[in-house]
Amino acid sequence: MGEMLALASALLFSVTAVIEKSLTRRLAPPHLAALGSLGGALFMLVIMFALGKGREIPDAPMGSILLSITGGVLSIAIGYSMYLVFLRSVDINKAAPVSQGLFAVLAVISGLFILGEMVSWFTFIGIAAMVAGLYTLSIAQRGQSASTEARWLGFKGLAFMVLVASFWVAGFSLQKKALEHLDVVIANGLRLPVVFFFLASFAALRLSRSLVSPDLEVPDREAQASTPIPTGVKVRPERSIEVKGPASTGVVRMKEVPGQRPGLSVFILAILNGSASFGLGSLLLLMALDRAGLAITMVLNNTSLLFIVLFSTVFLRERLTRKTVIGVIVTVTGVVMVVL
């Protein structure tokens, strides 16, 4: 049952991840994270009190509640916000495999050495396959990427994502301990409002510019030129700039991403997407975590890579390279070996 819940959450996360990528073009990472957590918090509060779980809160162990809240702050308020910074500059068919592959590797290590979960020799072979897939999806693709994306796919960007994955694993490890004495619905219903408070406070400080790479230029691709602008978004005129490319290509024509003021429809979409992701998706994930353990749950959640690559190619018109396909296949193969 836990495995099926993990797969269901993976499918849901793949859909919301593609929507998140499109929203990063309209909203700064702190604001997008705050709106998403608001949607999740509202969803869980409705579910919690509809199921009558609100009456059980006074009897819940305070230590477990604090563990759950701390885990939520680490994995969502910090880790997820940092991931959005990465996602804003990298195509999702590259960002998601890198982030989730690192997450799966660290989750297996944490489950084995910290939580004492049982794993087989196939687990270590699978980890090796996932690491090989990560290399193909990150370092090996630098030469095929635009200047900004190439920097994020280098060793510094990979180190940044290791830090992000570490926050995720630390948060979910604490969450796993909390669920030993805490109901899943109560755990998710209490942590998300606190997470929203942290993210909303941070967004209110207007620190988003310090988190985003100052070089937001992207290649002038035909697909981007034909991408429709969502209703409710006001766009200032574009202006072209010249950027020095490799010696073999000379000057590369680029488009500067114009300043955009998101309309009401963008905010509503971010909240609804957060309800699906932070609300329903994280609830399914915590239920799987409670039943199947950290290592198996996080590894199975990696199957969302297949859907993310497909959806990003179809709906976001991101270019699908041969190395991306190979990297995803190798990473997913590692996932299958881990769960054997």
What does this structure look like?
The chain has 340 residues and is mainly α. It has one domain (2-215, 264-339). It has helices at residues 2-23, 29-50, 62-89, 92-113, 121-137, 147-152, 155-178, 184-204, 208-211, 222-225, 264-292, 294-300, 304-315, 322-339, and strands at 218-219, 234-235, 240-244, 251-255, 260-261. Strand 3 (240-244) and strand 4 form a beta hairpin. Helix 4 packs antiparallel against helix 13. The protein is globular, with a radius of gyration of 20 Å. It starts with a helix and ends with a helix. Mean pLDDT is 76; it is low at 208-227 and 235-259.
- Protein structure class: mainly alpha
Strand percent estimate: under 5%
Integer tally of domains: 1
Low-confidence stretches: 208-227, 235-259
Shape: globular
| N-C termini distance | 16 Å
The arrangement of helices and strands along the chain is HHHHHHHHHEHEEEEHHHH
- Helical content band: 55-70%
For this structure, the quaternary state is: single chain
**Cα radius of gyration in angstroms:** 20 Å
Number of helices: 14
How many β strands by DSSP?
A: 5
Q: Could you tell me the mean pLDDT? A: 76
Strand order of the largest sheet: 1-4-3
Q: Main beta sheet, described?
A: 3 strands, antiparallel
